[in-house]
Amino acid sequence: MRYLLLVLLLLATQLKAQQSDETQIKNIYNEALVNGKGYGWLNYLSNQIGGRLSGSVQAQQAVEYTKEVMDSLGLDRVWLQPVKVPKWVRGTPEFAYLESNPGITNNVPICALGGSVATPFGGLKAKVVEVNGIEGLEALGREKIEGKIVFFNKPMDPTNINTFQSYKGCADQRYSGAAEAAKYGAVGVIVRSLNLRLDDYPHTGAMSYGDTPVEERIPAAAISTNGAELLSTTLKLNPNINFFFRQNCKVLPDADSFNVIGEIKGSTYPNEIMVVGGHLDSWDLGDGSHDDGAGCVQSMEVLRLLKATGYKPKRTIRVVLFMNEENGLRGGVTYAEQAAKKGERHIFALESDAGGFTPRGFSFDCDQANFNQVLGWKSLFEPYLIHLFNKGGSGADIGPLKNDNIVLAGLRPDSQRYFDHHHAANDTFEHVNKRELELGAATMTSLIYLFDTYGVVPSSN
Amino acid sequence: MRYLLLVLLLLATQLKAQQSDETQIKNIYNEALVNGKGYGWLNYLSNQIGGRLSGSVQAQQAVEYTKEVMDSLGLDRVWLQPVKVPKWVRGTPEFAYLESNPGITNNVPICALGGSVATPFGGLKAKVVEVNGIEGLEALGREKIEGKIVFFNKPMDPTNINTFQSYKGCADQRYSGAAEAAKYGAVGVIVRSLNLRLDDYPHTGAMSYGDTPVEERIPAAAISTNGAELLSTTLKLNPNINFFFRQNCKVLPDADSFNVIGEIKGSTYPNEIMVVGGHLDSWDLGDGSHDDGAGCVQSMEVLRLLKATGYKPKRTIRVVLFMNEENGLRGGVTYAEQAAKKGERHIFALESDAGGFTPRGFSFDCDQANFNQVLGWKSLFEPYLIHLFNKGGSGADIGPLKNDNIVLAGLRPDSQRYFDHHHAANDTFEHVNKRELELGAATMTSLIYLFDTYGVVPSSN
């Protein structure tokens, strides 16, 4: 009899907890959809400030603006964490054309890849050899590559439902294409934009020369997908055409910048820290609304939603807007270094860096016990059509926090439209839908709420 | 022992069926994403033809164009089914302003509701009374309404995750507002656009005078959400302002039109008919890309995908592009009448009429046994992030086919952006994403494939 009472009491407690979770989550979604502030903040970040490349004036303006926003939220503490960032500048607009016969030219849209060296001052003109990704270089060999421009034209695979998988399948030609092609004596590289659709926007993004000596570094640019199709077709008709491009980007000395941080102190376990964040820097071609203005305003909105719904966190919840994800990850690395130095205990970190589209769920980088705890919360998310709970990656900026005792997570929005805009001039505010952005913020807040309420499962190590 | 063998055999058969279903569905998605034709067809329908209001030249062009497309698919039969449709024309552009003092005016964007009468030739100017939906009329009574324009300003509820629920919550003020307000002596009605966002597009849509005598019918127009906010704010400052609007829309005699139909004859059960469709007519303000050009091209794509993947249906699969969903439903009614007359046996019908956005699942109007069969297929859809299988409505055009022996279904795409465009001038091609459209077509085809393979569960009646 006493046992039965105990079981009933336990069930009743669980039911009450379930109901209070349901209520709190409903309150979070309602507040986000009725009074959401993120869209307005993003409007300012995108339309009043614009693209925020590390070391730029705009990046500094974004630091100041988001600190102001955080100051207005009534958090327990807001501060700037110094970060030394690389500074690469694009210079004057790039220019390129195909020359099928002397004087017969077709202009094509290109943009320098982030980190690339310039072409010679007057531009670079050479014959072109097309390869289907880095793996195509070896078969051609030095004989067919030397003195030429290598055209990496491996397209993103349209058959993956998760478009990030297709991105991973060919991002290496952008990141390492120049370093690899230089080994065969190439004089420059042109890379098909990482975009699943045919259009006229070239997509930039980080590249690295690895250990290529400075004097052997060759310029690298992205060409729009329509441009890539034109170049490929023209090469099939006449392999002897010339390609010309000119860019005068360069690397300047490292610059001073900041991560922007705000926190609500935990009432019960103030030393257990939970991070939610995105990256404040962006590429320079568009205004970085999806990548990653969206993630920044959603992360600030998480703390606002907790306060607006009257929730008092038991653990310390910290929003971190990381600087320099795109070309260096210095913000993420610095944050983790400082945390280690101070002996801070991070138990959970969530990043939103996949666009401000309708949220579908999360992916988790954690042990099985913690993942099982998350799966137990699935039904709480069902009314909001959040259905995707996978093990996998989390986010670049929170990656350096990884250890055996932390749960890392990444918001997973619908990915179909992301690469239409990623790193291109059309990553702009009008392509973000207010409700989709707000649903993402509410979904993140709900997960933060649950981890705050139930904590993480201690590591068995 | 013999029993064990039988069980093993059964399990092996089921496993093989499961594998062949997985393979066929994978083939369908790959074909849709690599060689999809729907986006190109929609480009023509939207950009070469445009808005397709029933009885218009464009509606007739759309009939001819989609018949041509079907003719090119190598179907077993393609035909036009005559449908008599109502013909309402908008006339010259509508015009409206608020007049806070004589001569002090603010123009606001409006559009006539479909089916409305015109204002007097010189326009209509009157005082305004604001109500929060039809339910607000009674409290005001004839005394406060007579001689005035009723301004229905009930907004869509932003807290519903499914935006169609919010639409249902206030569509009555658009559909019946004029008939109801006329009972209290109103001289005209202005209705807040059914849009969750604040912008400058007025959204049209069907309205009905019910049994209001012709001489008592009053003109009805929609005002953009920004216009509605302005009007409401101004009324709070000064309840005595005038509102002026002018529209010269009218009803012409019924016109001849068609449903466009194509079919693949079933190899084993040719008399079991499965329908997939959308509606070919649209409103006239935009080009009807989401509503419902998307559903039309997806439905044609279903038959193309079946053929392209080498699948030979056991049952007859028919694509039906219905005419006149928006202001009459004559196509849907005619189709069902003709089917009944010919004694055709329809076992399944699927409609896509909720936009060309990322598909999330289906809703079903059927008995529990058939719904259970569908739930058994859920895991086949998981790799494609299709997770929503609800009981509920299906589609307006296939509704007239309803009986105890048919399964009705509606595609359920992500609904967040739908009402930004619905019935407005910005329902245009550039707001449709190619991959999202293609994923919808593949999802529909996969469901059709499963129903063709396994049939429906016979009614227990």
UniProtKB/TrEMBL annotation, chains A, B:
Which Pfam families is this protein grouped with? Peptidase_M28 (PF04389)
Q: Which residues form the signal peptide?
A: 1-17
Return one Gene Ontology term, BP aspect.
proteolysis
Q: Domain Peptidase M28 spans what residues?
A: 259-443
Q: SUPFAM superfamilies per the record?
A: Zn-dependent exopeptidases (SSF53187)
Subunit info here reads:
Homodimer. The monomeric form is inactive while the homodimer is active.
Its recorded name reads: Carboxypeptidase Q
